[in-house]
Amino acid sequence: MLRLYDSWGRPDVWHSVNSIESVHQDRAADEGMICGTARDGFVRILGGTVAYNTVPGQVGLDYVERIENLAAGPLVLGADDKESPWLFRGGRWVQPALTPPWKLEPEENKERSFKNDRWDDVRVLVGPKGAAITVSGSDEYPGTRVTARQSRSRVEILGREFSKLQPSFVFLTPDEEIWATDSDNLSHFSKGKWEVVSKLPEVPSDEPEFKPSDRGEFPLAGNGLLNIGKTVKSIGIAGPPWILIDQENAHLLRLDYGLRLKSPRLTHVPVRENGKLLQVHDALVWANGSLLLATDKGLRLFELRQGRLSAFTIPSLGEEVTITRLCRDGMGRLWLGGPGLWMIDQKAKLAHDFSELPMTGSLCDVVAFAVDPRRKDAVIVSLGLRGILFLSATPSQGR
């Protein structure tokens, strides 16, 4: 038995129609009831009084694709990082200033007949200590590229240059080193400048499943090199080597380098079952150095050293369920997302199905998860077009 507490911010409030989707008895009050509504989440009705759990303010994004935890609070980002992100701080939504002021390099000023007043390509990254790193670029190729860090509410410029770097393809490793899969190369930010350090990995000849992607403005597949998208992130905090996941193209990567970042090398990590390459949508560090994978064939445990794959079954979940997103909350509990939302009680081997919550279930896929830093029993869920769900699942006392 779980008590659920729900509050959420919606980007589409102006065309959201409020309606009651479910009615539940309020166990805390004999005459009360809890209603699940389409617009305001859960509301409690008792003695003619309505109590709302909705978060004050709304997220001004058309689509919420990522959730990151800044030191100041949860940060939500849209499908394009150049849209102003929103920060949940002090119980309300605010828009933080993360990118440096618009200013072109002299080389670009000489070649332009007009000037925009904002960055055209932006990548926002958050390190393990909650600091924001941004890479911003003009609309020219090559053009002005500025790498910056938010420090104590100030934007500190780490480097400026005139280059061909594509900011959208920048990623961060847990040691706070900044990398980019730029064109056919792996690039690294060091001493205020971006430099090419190695080539991207080649597509192995025995893997015909790989095809050049037509997604994104700058597809990187070509010349026999592996296609790497804009959604590369690290799995776990132990490394190097770092295990990465490219969620856009659904495969694992490995980034190796020696002392003082010597000889960096990015390689593909194949995940095969019965000789067939699986798509990997998400991954978590699991027990004994293994990874829990959300694949196109279901949940799998993957032992990295041996390259061994095994099924990860949850009897109460069902085999037909599609899982594309994974998260562990502050209590170590596993959360699963896809066309639905579940929390797994591993001791009881029970899957708690939250599909009856307002705005979840088959009508809305889970796009992203994040741990809620305010509570150990809670997660933050992106529902894409529907906005953000703050969800805590607290075991009832004595159960």
Number of strands: 34
Mean pLDDT: 81
Strand order of the largest sheet: 1-34-33-32
Radius of gyration: 22 Å
Fraction of residues in helix = under 10%
Report the span from N to C terminus.
Answer: 7 Å
Which stretches are low in confidence, meaning pLDDT under 50 for 5 or more residues running?
1-17, 208-222
Major sheet details = 4 strands, antiparallel
How is the quaternary structure best described? single chain
Number of helices: 1
Overview of this structure, please?
It is a single chain. By secondary structure, this protein is an all-beta fold. Helix content is 2%, strand content 45%. It is built from one helix and 34 strands. The chain has one helix at residues 106-111, and strands at residues 2-9, 20-25, 33-37, 41-46, 49-52, 66-70, 73-77, 86-89, 92-94, 121-126, 132-137, 143-151, 154-163, 170-172, 178-182, 185-190, 193-199, 232-235, 242-246, 251-256, 265-269, 272-273, 276-277, 280-285, 291-295, 298-303, 308-311, 325-328, 334-338, 340-345, 350-353, 368-371, 378-382, 388-395. The strands form nine sheets. It has a four-stranded antiparallel β-sheet with strand order 1-34-33-32, with no helix packed on it. Strand 3 (33-37) and strand 4 form a beta hairpin. It is globular and about 75 Å long. 35% of the residues are buried.
